[in-house]
């Protein structure tokens, strides 16, 4: 498999480390004075940490170019054929919108 | 006809023209008490135990291709019960005990061969981890021995003891571990279940579920029409998420590709199963003579049933590091299976939130060795709605409760289990 | 000692008669010529019996002339270079070649195991599934060992492979696989456009079937055209011809695996050269011109030595000038086999008869039969007469109903051709059936970027091969890097050379008729499989082992499924094919490993002072990839414990130092660095004062502890994080994930600097005194001037700067001093000099471990990926003022259950007793079992300070049980003894020593 790192060019997949589906969004960090132990907090994390669509087909997923530029990438790849249709930098794709109060 | 050397000799006289089908090829009936989705080892074993142990014989096993076409026919055939966490230890030993009587139970030679399995260690830390594990095994009444380097050398003098990057210090040895002929396990369960009247229906792909007004599952839609069912059991590892999605479920499972490899046949070389502790490589030798070996997942989600070169090279590097005598032995074939990787490396056998639908999934690396045990405990769950004592921790809600069974301690990262 | 070659033709062949090569087969001295394969040399020497089959140990000869050979397998070379199952047909002859036949005892001619043939009525497909079941114990002891001994083929050397292998990458626009007519045409077309082109050919010379077949291209002989084409390719700088290179696999993204046999054609690779080279060829386009494989017909006696593929007979005659027989019979269902008749006739070989299943002959065929005076019989072969040494005659079943026996010493058979669809099916594409040529051709779902041309695509005429090759090469070049014109396609003299074929798969006969030669699968085995319900081709393969031999089914797969189609009443396309998998040809495992073996299996990371430590005789321990000094023995110290005890005592009473450079080090910089660390650590770091260090704990999102370490604040916007040695890489990757993916809004940068700093822990009550001899005297190192957990950059005597951290893992007053890694060695030497007045010693990882256990610090064995902060006794560190990774999931019910196993101290009641890691904790008086297993010992050491073995453990409700006596149960080592659960901090629990 060849992944076209937007910073380094096309490289063999052995240079990269896989994380998984890029769709789940990490629930935002919260300010602890506002809503700690809020109901649904654990359910939201259960969904994020454990449940997967496990797509058979086109899937966007995280790869880390540890053998190159150390960038996290979002790779659009077909899990049935391994064909890659796009690769881009993963800036800020993984977390739910940060609430202003979370900036400590 | 009962299989034995005598029936074989009699058949030889008539040119083997009298053998009948190993299992029938029935048309699906309109309704079964239990429908099992998936004609792999687990599905067929479940049907066998439903019929044999729980007296439920109006059972169909639906297979979208040919039986054994999934992971049952693509694994590296190893059986062992060297697990250390509560939940796993007892279950895999239950399975091991069923392996030990399988041929007699099924009247089919599945070539269960207890030539032993050794997990090598290369550091004090690994030795300590194996001591912890081996002691758990012993406490559970399972055979285990901690061997030192001299004992390993006597057992396998051809390993690299001279100039290894990570010298072998010893190993954890389970004498009752070994291998079985994977296809024969499928055929043996099919043969035995069929004798009890279980319908094994090949080329029958499940395309959906039917429900009553309360949402209870009433059957399945298939490429061969609707089939009604009192209960439906899923045993479709590799495709669990896809089938569960038809019932509206999301699972804590990812599908990954695991490659395996076999060499050309050579004269007997390896006594049992060996796993390398300093690289991704494990190997046994089949009765035909091929070295059957593998390593780790390719590491990315895949349903393609094939892998790539980095892992093939990594595995062969491990092989050469461990036994540099295999340099001139040739790799004959490589293949890939779809691994149902759960979020803690441990299977799920449980009822689902959907009434009437039962789940057997997430087998990770343990699927083949679990076959008979999985069949028995899943059959009990389907028959009685209560989990088997040895499978009570394989719950679907354990991730919500924080009761993960994580042998490798890798957390919710399936490709690291 | 040149030996006469009775079956060598007087002239012709691509062999060098001026270079005779002596070799041995089963110890017998024989001679061939340069240019021969082992198989052609054996043919020339009149050797017909070369091996024994897998199951029945039937005598077998040479069947083919290529890499599809199922029978002529030998053990090549000897000693540690002995190589089992080597195909004689692809082994280039070299001087001194040694080959042994295999799977026979005591000799090839007299093989005891051929007794298996007597049992063949019982040994049918799958017989072993029906028997050997009683008694159960006999399987491992009796049945299986016997089966294993009989199975297998060649013997592996059993010795380490002495040769080297390497791996290489190649990149091109167009990869052409195969250098026959289509491949050469494709390479010429692509090469002329300027596209970067690689032409890979598995044979030692390019040309493919053109080396064996007659023909005329562009007005010259085929062989001359090959020479011309090669000359043109050589003149193109953008074209690379790689002979002896087999493309074996198609992987994702246009990556092709190929094996180059660099030095298999010489006795031993020259010094500093590799035996084989693994290529990863990345190609934008690929033209597969891999040709086709002629298939056998299944009839009684088709496996006798002396029965050979018709194309192979032609190859031996025309390419190698070797005569497979003197009186040749031919059995065919197609025109191609008649080329063999022509070749044999031209070479002066007698033609006994041609048996053709087709009634109609061409004018040319009739003319040839008349001119040569041989009978053409319309019929099939009923049986083959002869023995282990060869064929004596054939029994023909004529279409008229009569039988006729004809004397012959060689039978050439041709059942048609199977296009090589392997590579084009490696992405699980399914080949499609073409009725007109009775063969599978590549389907529509071949790998992206690939095009198949010529015989591999079912185009069997020379003209079509040249045309398809040219078009494919031009198209591939146009789609990748080609800019210029592809020129004109070459043209064959006889454009209407299409294949006429009347498919015949299986002929009923008297005796066994083989489908898979090596695995002894017969036509009746296929029928039996069908009867028993193994109708799917995959079931057929698995039940009978059809196609699973070293020829990978190249001879047998299509024929087997065609017979299955026949007996099950389905069509061939309905029956379908099995899945084609890499490698297309078997590949040596050594080649796939390359240089990564022995000490070079993985890189070794050396800590900065390792060279110096080695001078002092320190043994090294592997920690991940790192090599770390374990202890530093003094003269007279003969066991490790003596040295380690001394090191611990010296540090606790004086001073010692230890290289801790292997800890992961990460610079965390930027205005939001504090916020960032607050999120990844459970405790607060934004409040840490500049010039201070703090111990931090990180969780995973599932609430389990990921890693720990000390992080210092060097400046308002600069933190310096340390991680454990084991987790340095994963933590860096994780932090980058947080920074790039989760919180890009934070203005923070991360840089791994593990390799940039040499760090030594200088520990012990005299550590400050020692450092005063190293650090610039103007620096205040006093408790007030440099308090516990203080950090700052300090000038050293001599002017260079170091980072100094007052942190302690040992529990003593201690500092960590960091200098640029290249000064690590010098620093170690200077610490020895500066510390001499204080009796300084270096200490290794063992003493480090002893002191951390004495202090109850957790490490790898406790941070095992399943423990929570509270399990480790660190739950109170969690800040309540801020959110952090893992906070939410750490509160799940099972993770906060009161009966969790938590870290405690463990010490044997009998102080003389050794404690061992991995022992389990069982309450006193309880029956040992899974329900009473309450935990285990995680880490142990011999504490010289306490004068006994002590350890840490994870024990159920452990913190409530200090003082309780329990059993340490260790059945693996036959031990069971009483231990006390205690506070994990064994030494200086108040912590006064480290605060100085």
Describe the structure.
The complex is a heterotrimer of chains A (104), B (417) and C (996). Chain A has 104 residues and is mostly beta strands. Chain A is built from one helix and six strands; from the N terminus they run E-E-E-H-E-E-E. Chain A has one helix spanning 41-50; strands spanning 2-5, 9-12, 17-21, 58-64, 72-78, 84-89. In chain A, strands 3-4-5-6 form a four-stranded antiparallel beta sheet, with no helix packed on it. The model of chain A is unreliable at 98-104 (pLDDT under 50). Helix content of chain B is 28%, strand content 26%. In chain B, strands 1, 2, 8, 9, 10, 11, 17 and 18 form an eight-stranded mixed beta sheet that branches. In chain B, strand 10 and strand 11 form a beta hairpin. Chain B is globular and about 70 Å long. Chain C is an alpha+beta fold. Among the domains of chain C are: 165-292 and 420-478, FAD/NAD(P)-binding domain (3-Layer(bba) Sandwich); 296-415, FAD/NAD(P)-binding domain; 605-661 and 757-852, Gyrase A, domain 2; 664-752, Alpha-Beta Plaits; 898-995, Aminomethyltransferase beta-barrel domains (Elongation Factor Tu (Ef-tu), domain 3, Beta Barrel), CATH 2.40.30.110. Chain C contains 21 helices and 50 strands. In chain C, the strands form twelve sheets. In chain C, strands 8, 9, 12, 13, 14, 15 and 27 form a seven-stranded mixed beta sheet that branches. In chain C, strands 17-23-18-19-20-21-22 form a seven-stranded mixed beta sheet. In chain C, helix 5 (310-318) runs parallel beside helix 6. Chain C is elongated and about 115 Å long. The mean pLDDT of chain C is 96. Chains in contact: A-B, A-C, B-C. At the A-B interface, strand 3, helix 1 and strand 4 of A face helix 8, strand 12 and strand 15 of B. Chain C: InterPro entries: 2Fe-2S-bd_N, BFD-like_2Fe2S-bd_dom_sf, FAD/NAD-bd_sf, GcvT/YgfZ/DmdA, GcvT/YgfZ_C, GcvT_C, GCVT_N, Sarcosine_oxidase_asu. Chain C: One of its GO terms (biological process) is tetrahydrofolate metabolic process. Chain C: GO terms for molecular function: sarcosine oxidase activity. Chain C: Keywords: Oxidoreductase.
């Amino acid at each position: 498999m060849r992944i076209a790192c937007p910073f380094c060019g096309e490289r063999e997949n052995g240079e990269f480390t896989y994380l998984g589906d890029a769709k789940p969004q990490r629930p935002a960090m919260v300010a602890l004075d506002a809503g700690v132990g809020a109901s649904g907090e654990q359910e939201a994390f259960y969904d994020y940490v454990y449940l997967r669509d496990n797509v058979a087909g086109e899937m966007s997923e995280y790869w880390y170019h540890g053998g190159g530029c150390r960038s996290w990438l979002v790779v659009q790849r077909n899990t049935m054929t391994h064909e890659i249709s796009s690769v881009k930098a993963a800036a800020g794709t993984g977390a739910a919108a940060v609430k202003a109060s979370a900036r400590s | 006809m009962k299989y034995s050397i005598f029936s074989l000799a009699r058949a030889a006289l008539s040119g083997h023209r009298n053998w009948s089908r190993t299992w029938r090829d029935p048309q699906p009936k309109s309704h079964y008490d239990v429908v099992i989705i998936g004609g792999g080892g687990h599905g067929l074993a479940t049907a066998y135990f439903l019929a044999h142990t729980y007296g439920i014989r109006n059972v169909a096993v639906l297979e979208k291709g040919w039986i054994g076409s999934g992971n049952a026919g693509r694994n590296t055939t190893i059986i062992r019960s060297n697990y250390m966490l509560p939940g796993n230890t007892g279950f895999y030993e239950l399975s091991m005990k069923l392996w030990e009587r399988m041929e007699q139970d099924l009247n089919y030679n599945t070539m269960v061969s207890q030539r032993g399995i050794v997990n090598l260690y290369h550091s004090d830390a690994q030795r300590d981890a194996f001591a912890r594990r081996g002691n758990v095994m012993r406490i559970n009444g399972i055979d285990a021995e901690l061997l030192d380097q001299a004992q390993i050398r006597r057992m396998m003098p051809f390993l690299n003891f001279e100039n290894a990057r990570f010298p072998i210090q010893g190993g954890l040895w389970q004498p009752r571990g070994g291998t079985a002929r994977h296809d024969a396990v499928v055929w043996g369960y099919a043969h035995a279940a069929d004798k009890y009247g279980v319908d094994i229906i090949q080329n029958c792909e499940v395309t959906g579920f039917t429900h009553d007004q309360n949402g209870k599952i009433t059957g399945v839609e298939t490429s061969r029409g609707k089939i009604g069912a009192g209960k439906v059991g899923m045993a479709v590892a590799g495709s669990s998420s896809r089938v569960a999605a038809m019932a509206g479920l999301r699972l804590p499972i990812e599908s990954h590709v695991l490659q395996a490899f076999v060499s050309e046949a050579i004269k007997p070389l390896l006594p049992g199963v060996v796993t390398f502790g300093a690289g991704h490589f494990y190997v046994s030798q089949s009765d035909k003579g091929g070295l059957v070996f593998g390593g780790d997942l390719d590491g990315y989600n895949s349903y393609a049933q094939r892998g790539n070169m980095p892992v093939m090279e990594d595995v062969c590097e491990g092989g050469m590091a461990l036994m540099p005598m295999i340099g001139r032995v040739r790799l004959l074939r490589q293949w890939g299976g779809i691994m149902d990787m759960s979020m803690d490396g441990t299977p799920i056998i449980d009822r689902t939130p959907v009434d009437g639908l039962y789940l057997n999934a997430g087998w990770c690396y343990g699927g083949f060795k679990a076959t008979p045990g999985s069949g028995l405990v899943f059959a009990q769950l389907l028959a009685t709605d209560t989990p088997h004592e040895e499978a009570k921790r394989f719950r679907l809600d354990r991730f919500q409760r924080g009761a993960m069974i994580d042998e490798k301690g890798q957390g919710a990262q399936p490709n690291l289990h | 000692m040149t030996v006469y070659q009775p079956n060598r033709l007087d002239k012709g062949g691509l062999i060098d008669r001026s270079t005779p090569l002596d070799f041995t087969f089963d110890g017998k001295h024989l001679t061939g010529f340069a240019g021969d394969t082992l198989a052609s040399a054996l043919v020339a020497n009149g050797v017909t019996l070369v091996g024994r089959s897998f199951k029945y140990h039937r005598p077998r000869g040479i069947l083919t002339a290529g890499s599809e050979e199922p029978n002529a397998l030998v053990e090549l070379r000897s000693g540690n270079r002995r190589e089992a199952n080597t195909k004689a047909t692809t082994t280039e002859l070299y001087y001194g070649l040694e080959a042994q036949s295999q799977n026979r005892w005591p000799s090839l001619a007299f093989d005891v195991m051929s007794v298996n043939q007597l049992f063949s009525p019982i040994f049918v497909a799958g017989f072993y599934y029906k028997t050997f079941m009683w008694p159960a114990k006999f399987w491992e002891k009796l049945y299986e060992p016997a089966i294993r001994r009989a199975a297998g083929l060649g013997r592996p050397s059993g010795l380490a492979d002495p040769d080297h292998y390497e791996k290489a990458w190649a990149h091109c626009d167009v990869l052409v696989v195969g250098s026959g007519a289509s491949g050469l045409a494709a390479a010429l077309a692509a090469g002329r456009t300027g596209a970067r082109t690689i032409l890979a050919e598995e044979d030692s010379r390019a040309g493919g079937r053109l080396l064996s077949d007659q023909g005329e291209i562009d007005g010259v002989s085929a062989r001359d055209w090959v020479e011309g084409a090669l000359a043109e390719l050589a003149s193109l700088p953008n074209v690379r011809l790689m002979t002896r290179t087999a493309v074996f696999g198609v992987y994702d993204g246009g990556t092709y695996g190929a094996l180059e046999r660099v030095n298999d054609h010489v006795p031993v690779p020259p010094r500093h050269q590799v035996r084989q080279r693994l290529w990863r060829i990345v190609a934008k386009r690929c033209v597969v011109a891999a040709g086709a494989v002629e298939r056998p017909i299944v009839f009684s006696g088709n496996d006798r030595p002396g029965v050979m593929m018709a194309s192979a007979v032609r190859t031996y005659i025309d390419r190698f000038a070797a005569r497979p027989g003197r009186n040749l019979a031919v059995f065919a269902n197609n025109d191609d086999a008649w080329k063999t008749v022509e070749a044999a006739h031209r070479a002066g070989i007698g033609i006994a008869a041609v048996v053709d299943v087709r009634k109609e002959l061409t004018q040319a065929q009739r003319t040839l039969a008349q001119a040569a005076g041989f009978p053409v019989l319309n019929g099939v072969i009923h049986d083959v007469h002869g023995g282990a040494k060869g064929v004596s005659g054939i029994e023909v079943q004529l279409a008229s109903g009569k039988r006729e026996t004809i004397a012959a010493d060689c039978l050439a058979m041709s059942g048609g051709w199977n296009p090589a669809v392997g590579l084009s099916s490696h992405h699980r594409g399914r080949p499609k059936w073409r009725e007109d040529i009775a063969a599978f051709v590549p389907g529509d779902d071949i790998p992206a970027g690939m095009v198949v041309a010529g015989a591999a695509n079912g185009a069997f005429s020379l003209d079509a091969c040249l045309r398809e090759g040219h078009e494919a090469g031009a198209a591939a070049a146009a789609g990748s890097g080609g800019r210029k014109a592809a020129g004109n396609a070459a043209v064959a003299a006889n454009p209407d050379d299409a294949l006429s074929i009347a498919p015949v798969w299986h002929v009923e006969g008297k005796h066994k008729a083989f489908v898979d030669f090596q695995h002894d699968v017969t036509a009746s085995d296929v029928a039996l499989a069908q009867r028993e319900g193994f109708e799917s081709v995959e079931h057929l393969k698995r039940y009978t082992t059809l196609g699973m031999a070293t020829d990978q089914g190249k001879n047998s797969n299509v024929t087997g499924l065609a017979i299955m189609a026949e007996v099950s009443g389905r069509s061939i396309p309905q029956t379908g094919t099995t899945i084609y998998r890499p490698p297309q040809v078997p590949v040596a495992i050594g080649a796939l490993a390359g240089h990564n073996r022995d000490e070079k299996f993985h890189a070794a990371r050396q800590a900065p002072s390792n060279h110096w430590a080695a001078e002092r005789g320190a043994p090294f321990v592997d920690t991940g990839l790192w090599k770390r000094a374990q202890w530093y023995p003094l003269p007279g110290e003969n066991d490790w414990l003596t040295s380690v005890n001394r090191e611990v005592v010296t540090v606790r009473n004086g001073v010692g130092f230890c290289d801790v450079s292997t800890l992961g080090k990460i610079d965390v910089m930027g205005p939001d660095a504090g916020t960032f660390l607050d999120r990844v650590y459970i405790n607060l770091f934004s409040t840490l004062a500049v010039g201070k260090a703090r111990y931090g704990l990180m969780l995973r999102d599932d609430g389990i502890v990921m890693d720990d370490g000390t992080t210092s604040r060097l400046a308002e916007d600069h933190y310096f994080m340390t991680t454990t040695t084991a987790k340095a890489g994963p933590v860096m990757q994780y932090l980058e994930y947080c920074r790039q993916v989760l919180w890009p809004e934070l203005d923070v940068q991360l840089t791994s600097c593990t390799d940039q700093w040499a760090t030594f822990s200088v520990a012990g009550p005299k550590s400050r005194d020692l450092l005063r001899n190293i650090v610039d005297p103007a620096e205040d190192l006093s408790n007030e001037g440099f308090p516990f957990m203080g950090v700052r950059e300090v000038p050293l005597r001599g002017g260079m700067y170091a980072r100094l951290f007052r942190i302690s893992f040992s529990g003593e007053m201690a500092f960590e001093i960091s200098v640029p890694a290249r000064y690590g060695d010098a620093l170690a030497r200077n610490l020895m000099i500066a510390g001499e007045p204080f009796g300084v010693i270096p200490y290794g990882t063992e003493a480090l471990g002893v002191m951390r256990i004495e202090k109850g610090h957790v490490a790898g064995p406790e941070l095992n990926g399943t423990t929570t902060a509270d399990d480790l006794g660190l739950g109170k560190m969690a800040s309540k003022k801020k959110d952090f990774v893992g906070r939410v999931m750490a509160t799940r019910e099972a993770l906060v259950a009161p009966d969790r196993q938590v870290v405690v101290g463990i010490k044997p009641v009998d102080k003389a007793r050794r404690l061992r890691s991995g022992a389990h904790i069982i309450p006193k008086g309880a029956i040992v079992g899974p329900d009473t297993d309450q935990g285990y010992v995680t880490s142990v050491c011999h504490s010289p300070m306490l004068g006994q073995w002590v350890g840490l453990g994870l024990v159920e409700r452990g913190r409530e049980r200090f003082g309780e006596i329990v059993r340490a149960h260790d059945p693996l080592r036959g031990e069971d003894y009483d231990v006390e659960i205690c506070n994990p901090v064994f030494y200086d629990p108040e912590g006064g020593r480290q605060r100085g």
